[in-house]
Design a protein that fits this description.
Helix content: 40-55%
Distance between the termini: 27 Å
Mean pLDDT: 87
Strand content: 15-25%
Number of helices: 8
Low-confidence stretches: none
Structural class: alpha/beta
Largest sheet: 5 strands, parallel
Shape: elongated
Radius of gyration: 18 Å
Strand order of the largest sheet: 2-1-3-6-7
Length: 226
């Protein structure tokens, strides 16, 4: 799962990134309005953590931009501004949650996971697709009740595929989701083929139906409507 943290306080930013990365989230950061706005336009995130008070702009304007560009993206406002008006304005503009500073990182983590469950997993703690069962918090995958061993990238691929099941997923979207800012370092996306191939091979070997279909020159689809 990929998170964008929009926060200009260096120590707060460092603490949140460190904690969430230990929880196996991929975290990108923006420390002012302009960088945050650019990232929102270019990339897709599962959750955005947003401070209202930012250099060069107001976080409330970013909520409007997020909802216009990525309407399904979850937003949690994290801000030292604790006035009722700010809270109401943020929620009315489309934010899903509001957590005033200071807060415990464990609570932030719980709220992020809860929001992702609601938005991506339909509110469930365990994802079930036919013979596939996934426990996201434990990063555990079962096929017909037997655990299969997936690498971190393979697990993230599977989660992304299931979150976009029966849709066409372009190679560029897969790379950007799994590598984030580092995706720009690659000249081409051919290497993603090996990750997808290995995931598909492991699923089939464990007794899963062959859900992953390649679309030549475009990308892939995780087809559960066979």
């Amino acid at each position: 799962m990929k998170i964008l943290l929009i926060e200009d306080e260096p120590e707060m930013q460092k603490s949140i990134v460190h904690y969430l990365e230990l929880e196996k989230f991929k975290v990108e950061v923006a420390n002012d309005f302009e960088i945050a706005f650019e990232k929102i336009q270019l990339y897709q995130y599962d959750c955005i953590l947003l401070d209202i008070t930012l250099p060069n702009g107001n976080g409330l304007e970013l909520i409007k931009a997020i909802k216009k560009t990525r309407p399904k993206t979850g937003i949690i406002v994290i801000s030292a501004k604790n006035s009722l008006d700010d809270k109401i304005d943020g929620l009315n503009l489309g934010a899903d949650d509001y957590l005033p500073k200071p807060f415990y990182l464990a609570e932030l983590n719980a709220r992020v996971k809860s929001l992702i469950r609601r938005n991506i997993y339909d509110g469930v703690d365990v994802i079930t697709i036919n013979e596939i069962t996934i426990y996201p918090d434990e990063r555990k995958t079962l096929i017909h009740d037997s655990i299969i061993n997936l690498t971190a990238k393979e697990f993230d691929l599977l989660i992304y595929f299931i979150g976009n099941k029966n849709r066409v997923v372009q190679k560029s979207a897969l790379v950007e989701h799994l590598w984030g800012d580092n995706a720009d370092q690659f000249d081409n996306f051919d290497f993603i083929y090996n990750h997808v191939k290995n995931l598909r091979k492991k699923l089939i070997a464990a007794g899963s139906s062959d859900y992953i279909q390649s679309l030549y020159g475009i990308g892939y689809t995780f087809n559960t409507e066979q």
